[in-house]
């Protein structure tokens, strides 16, 4: 059993992400409040889709696939892993393409056996985040077992500041492997970062939060003026299930509801580099193809009158509304 697999089993025992796909209920605003879509300038009946590219900056192949999907496909935003070696390359692209939408993929784990990275914050400030080899822990449960939420906060803050200092117009934050989204104390630090930098966030579904015993969390975060999509689609597409990637994502897109839905993919191409890093290279390559070049997906999005968007409109709306509320 791989480290990633064991982490998933332990998280399932915590009742976190215990089903393959979770669709979040709409954010807990009063019924007479304008919907998020309306506040963004669309109709309440419009279907808005955020295809976020996770793991930008992780390696050269991820960068190439991410930028191609942003330019030719339906990816309208991506989140960058600032501790990774190929961070400077994606920074160069972002600075030369200021119209592109990039957030920070808060990275508190380093899961690949032969390709590792450490913290952005000085290691003496986040000792619980670091394993015996000097890298970030490989599994989420390792982080929960060794690190304090305050250390995750320090590391997250350092990663966002690194992106901002590099010239990236950060649009949102999410969490690599869900580390900041699946434990109440770490969620608190995650929300603190969103408030501190005034950024929207990827938010766990209402079903997940209810299983964790925190069904009120979406409402509490919304009350702070932090925005997140109405719906969130989560799916690991595990190799052992032998799911057809294209069929799965076509099914998800076909069932989109009015409002703002986020799904995420890991874009890659079948390069020797990606094959050497991860056993999930086939899934990553198929996801890239489905959301970049697949004609059936293009036709479906057109037929369903789905509007692809990124997180930047949410960030701009959030900052406007929070400013007005002061």
Structural account:
By secondary structure, the chain is α/β, with parallel strands linked by helices. The protein has one domain: TIM Barrel, CATH 3.20.20.370. The chain is built from 14 helices and 7 strands. Strands 1, 2, 3, 4, 5, 6 and 7 form a 7-stranded parallel β-sheet that branches. Helix 4 links the parallel strand 2 and strand 3. Helix 6 packs parallel to helix 7 and helix 10 runs parallel beside helix 13. The chain is globular, with a radius of gyration of 18 Å. It starts with a helix and ends with a helix. The N terminus is likely disordered.
List the helices and strands and how they pair.
Blueprint: H1 3-13, H2 36-39, E1 47-56, H3 60-72, E2 77-80, H4 87-96, E3 102-106, H5 140-146, H6 149-165, E4 173-175, H7 184-197, H8 206-211, H9 217-223, E5 231-233, H10 245-254, E6 259-265, H11 272-277, H12 281-292, H13 295-303, E7 306-309, H14 312-325
Parallel strand pairs: 1-2, 1-6, 1-7, 2-3, 3-4, 5-6
Helix pairs in contact: 6-7, 10-13
CATH architecture annotation name? Alpha-Beta Barrel
Provide the CATH topology.
Answer: TIM Barrel
Regions with little confidence, pLDDT below 50 for 5+ residues: 1-30
- Number of helical regions: 14
The CATH class name reads Alpha Beta
Overall geometry comes to globular
Average pLDDT for all residues: 89
Q: How much helicity do the residues have?
A: 40-55%
Strand content: 5-15%
> What is the terminal-to-terminal distance?
52 Å
Tally of domains = 1
How does the helix and strand content classify structurally?
Answer: alpha/beta
What profile does the largest beta sheet have? 7 strands, parallel
Number of strands: 7
């Amino acid at each position: 059993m791989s480290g990633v697999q064991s982490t998933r089993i332990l998280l399932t025992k915590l009742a976190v992400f215990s089903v393959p796909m979770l669709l979040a209920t709409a954010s807990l605003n009063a019924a007479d409040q304008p919907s998020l879509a309306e506040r963004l300038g669309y109709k309440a009946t419009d279907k808005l889709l955020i295809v976020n590219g996770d793991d930008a900056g992780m390696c050269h192949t991820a960068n190439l696939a991410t930028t191609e999907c942003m330019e030719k496909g339906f990816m309208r935003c991506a989140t960058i892993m600032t501790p990774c070696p190929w961070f400077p390359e994606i920074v160069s692209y972002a600075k030369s393409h200021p119209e592109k939408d990039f957030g920070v993929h808060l990275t508190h784990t380093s899961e690949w056996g032969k390709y590792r990275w450490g913290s952005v914050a000085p290691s003496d400030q986040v000792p619980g985040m670091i394993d015996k080899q000097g890298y970030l822990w490989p599994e989420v449960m390792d982080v929960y077992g060794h690190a304090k939420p305050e250390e995750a906060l320090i590391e997250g803050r350092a990663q966002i500041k690194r992106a901002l200092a590099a010239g990236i117009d950060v649009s949102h934050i999410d969490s690599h492997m869900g580390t900041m989204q699946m434990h109440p104390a770490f969620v608190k630090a995650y929300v603190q970062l969103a408030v501190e930098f005034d950024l929207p966030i990827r938010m766990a579904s209402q079903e997940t939060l209810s299983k964790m015993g925190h069904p009120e969390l979406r409402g509490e975060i919304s009350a702070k003026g932090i925005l997140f999509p109405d719906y969130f689609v989560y799916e690991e597409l595990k190799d052992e299930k032998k799911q057809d990637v294209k069929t799965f994502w076509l099914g998800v897109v076909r069932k989109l509801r009015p409002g703002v839905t986020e799904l995420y993919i890991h874009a890659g191409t079948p390069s020797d580099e990606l094959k050497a890093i991860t056993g999930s290279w086939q899934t990553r390559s198929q996801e890239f193809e489905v959301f970049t070049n697949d004609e059936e997906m293009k036709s479906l999005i057109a037929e369903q009158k789905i509007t692809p968007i990124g997180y930047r409109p949410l960030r701009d709306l959030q900052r406007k509304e929070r400013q007005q509320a002061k």
